[in-house]
Specification:
By secondary structure, the chain is an alpha/beta fold. Among the domains are: about 50 residues; about 50 residues; about 180 residues, Leucine-rich repeat, LRR (right-handed beta-alpha superhelix) (Alpha-Beta Horseshoe), CATH 3.80.10. It is about 30% helix and about 15% strand. The chain has 18 helices and 25 strands. The strands form five sheets. Strands 1-2-3-4-5-6-7-11-13-18-20-21-22-23-24-25 form a 16-stranded parallel β-sheet. Strands 9-8-16 form a three-stranded parallel β-sheet, with helices on one face. The protein has a two-stranded parallel ribbon with strand order 10-12. Helix 7 links the parallel strand 2 and strand 3. It is elongated and about 160 Å long.
Length: about 650
């Protein structure tokens, strides 16, 4: 039998009847289908169980979270806490202040979600030019909120990096609220100023603080011409440190309230009066002006003739004024601070500026020998040309609304010369401080000049606050000075020699007679507050004597008999203030004295409107003293804390007592 025959035989045998195999296959497929159904049911059950487990876990986590007080804080309250933390002032002004939102967003998942959803947390932006991604993240997370930007550029930063970061920041220029440019190199600041000239509008910007190191900037004329005229419509505060107004964009500043210029004249460029008057002419709402070491170089003339009321037409984008101008009107300027002006020439400044509403004036004088630098006909000199055109009014500045005057001087001559040329009939607060140009060893201090040596009119009936610092007080001169201030309420003596005798004199008596006032006259009868700082010769016996004597005097009733007895028993000590003779103006072409038809002539400049008398001055009025209501003592070694605080006890009855070592 061949092989092929054998294979056919076996093939016929095994394939003869497949019915049994088919039945088996069908049965297996049915079983597989059943298992698939059960598998699907099991999967659904597993998903259901998993969902139930997840729900229970979330409920458990929620209940656990309720046991943690930090997680139980509502989101609204959490936002308030975050805002308080982010907005808290940084005493050291470090860059960590600007990373507080990032710190909050990395504590936990919930805090991160709340922080990212609160756009107000990301408004303070720090630009260092080294992390552009962080800058873009803050700009995106702040959404539509206004931005407070602080630019701090390292000296190693290139100008290209600065320009790239600034253009990224300029994309949100419409949301800038404040912008501070920290001192940096000349080239970097020049790049920022250049971009600032290219911006079209900063409608939300309220504060702009620009500073630089090194030499002054120099912006080309063509760059200035491209500035939009209304780029700063809402700017209220402008600070320029070592940046001249000449380089600031020449645009109108309709809402500017505060202008601070710090441009020392020891640089290669000087602040000129023409540049200063040009920028001031574009600030009609200015209320505070500060010139810190920036005495402008006199290079223009001012026409003070009354017939000239307005300035000639100035180009709206002028960087300098013409050679001849009229006084720049600043109708809302209420505060002016100037450092190192020449005392003899200060009065000239108030002829260039018309400041009818000036109420606060702070001056730190240069030495008496200093004069105002001038630049006329390309020649630099010291006060050789008169910048006033028209009838010369004399060296006097009229400040009719001035109420607060603070003066720091380096010599007595400059103090007396400058104050003699200021007329302030409404003065309420006066501060006099001596600051030596060079510290000298020993307690040598200059003697405080007499009031009539400092002011054209020594009688100041409106003065209520007087502060004297670092002077040697002569008793008789100081008593005379205080008698000219009948309305004085608050007296401050700081680091003054001879302050002990002055305090003793306020009681109306002396240490020898137990501080008993035998007369009806008092020095500063309305005095209520007394502040003594670092006065080494003031004793508690004299201070308590002042308090007791004035309390007893305030409870006395002054009738005519008592006044006669007091004045006859003991004459008034010290120099008596006698009124000047009253001037009688003759009546023109009239032999009879017709007082009804007589019209008093106009008073001369700087003279009282009431002849020899000052309105409000009552030289013969007898006043009861006011009680001392406040005593502040600091750094006085002869007054202990126990002694000072005893003034609050019964008998002295001083409600406000403060003592510091």
């Amino acid at each position: 039998m061949t092989v092929i025959a054998v294979i056919k035989r076996y093939f016929i045998y095994y394939t003869s009847d497949p019915s049994e195999e088919n039945a088996s296959i069908t049965e297996l497929e049915a079983q597989i289908a059943t298992l698939r159904i059960r598998e699907e049911e099991a999967r659904r059950i597993s998903e259901f169980v998993s969902q139930q487990r997840c729900a229970l876990e979330k409920e458990r986590d929620r209940l656990i979270a309720q046991t943690n007080p930090f997680d139980r804080v509502p989101s609204e309250l959490l936002i308030d806490i975050f805002e308080h933390f982010v907005e808290r002032d940084d005493e050291n002004n470090t860059s960590a202040f600007y990373f507080r939102p990032f710190t909050l967003s990395h504590v936990c998942h919930r805090w991160r979600c709340v922080a990212l959803d609160t756009s107000g947390l990301w408004c303070a932006v720090l630009m260092t030019c080294h992390n552009t991604e962080m800058l873009l993240a803050q700009l995106a997370r702040s959404k539509l909120h206004q931005l407070a930007i602080d630019v701090r550029v390292a000296p190693t930063t290139t100008r290209g990096e600065v320009v790239t970061s600034l253009w990224s920041l300029a994309a949100a220029a419409t949301r800038w609220r404040t912008l501070t440019w920290a001192p940096s190199s000349h080239l970097l600041t020049h790049g920022f100023i250049f971009i600032l000239h290219k911006l079209r509008s900063l409608p939300k910007l309220r504060l702009l603080d620009l500073a630089q190191e090194g030499e002054a900037l120099h912006i080309k004329e063509d760059a200035q011409s491209s500035v939009h005229p209304d780029v700063f419509p809402a700017l209220e505060t402008l600070r320029l440190r070592r940046i001249s107004p000449l380089d600031f964009p020449t645009c109108t500043l309709p809402n500017l309230r505060t202008l601070h210029i710090d441009f020392p004249n020891n640089t290669s460029r000087h602040l000129r009066m023409s540049n200063l008057c040009a920028i001031l002419s574009r600030t009609p709402s200015l209320s505070e002006l500060t010139l810190n070491g920036s005495v402008p170089l006199m290079d223009i003339y001012v026409d003070i003739r009354p017939t000239t009321l307005v300035n000639p037409d100035l180009p709206p984008r002028a960087r300098r004024t013409p050679l001849q101008i009229c006084p720049v009107a600043l109708p809302r300027l209420s505060a002016f601070e100037c450092s190192f002006p020449p005392p003899r020439d200060l009065w000239l400044f108030f002829h260039f500026l018309a400041v009818p509403a000036l109420r606060r004036l702070e001056l730190s004088f240069n030495a008496y020998t200093a004069r105002w630098l001038q630049l006329y006909n390309d020649q630099l000199s010291e006060a050789t040309v008169n910048p006033l055109l028209g009838e010369q009014p004399g060296p006097l500045a009229q400040l009719s609304q001035l109420e607060d005057l603070s003066v720091e001087c380096v010599d007595i001559e400059g103090l007396t010369m400058a104050l003699k040329r200021l007329n302030a009939p409404a003065l309420k607060s006066l501060s006099l401080t001596y600051l030596p140009a060079e510290p000298k060893p020993g307690p040598l201090l200059p003697q405080l000049p007499r009031l009539e040596s400092m002011f054209r009119e020594p009688r100041i009936p409106t003065l209520t606050r007087l502060s004297i610092s670092c002077f040697d007080l002569d008793l008789e001169n100081t008593k005379t000075m205080l008698r000219y201030t009948q309305s004085l309420v608050h007296l401050t003596l700081r680091s003054c020699l001879g302050a002990g005798k002055v305090v003793c004199a306020l009681s109306g008596g002396t240490c020898a007679d137990g501080h008993v006032n035998h007369t009806a006259s008092w020095i500063c009868p309305r005095l209520e507050r007394l502040t003594l700082v670092h006065c080494v010769d003031v004793r508690f016996r004299c201070l308590s004597g002042v308090v007791i004597a004035r309390k007893a005097g305030s409870q006395m009733s002054f009738d005519a008999e008592t006044i006669v007895q007091c004045t006859s028993a003991s004459p008034m000590r010290g120099r008596r203030i006698r009124p000047l003779k009253k001037r009688v103006a003759p009546l023109a072409n009239s032999s009879a004295c017709n007082l009804q038809s007589y019209v008093a002539p106009e008073p001369l400049s700087g003279m009282p409107v009431n002849g020899s008398f000052v309105p409000g001055w009552k030289p013969h009025e007898l006043l009861k003293p006011s009680r001392i209501l406040s005593v502040h003592v600091e750094g006085c070694p002869r007054i202990s804390r126990i002694e000072a605080m005893s003034l609050e006890e019964e008998g002295w009855d001083v409600p406000d007592v403060l003592w510091k070592p």
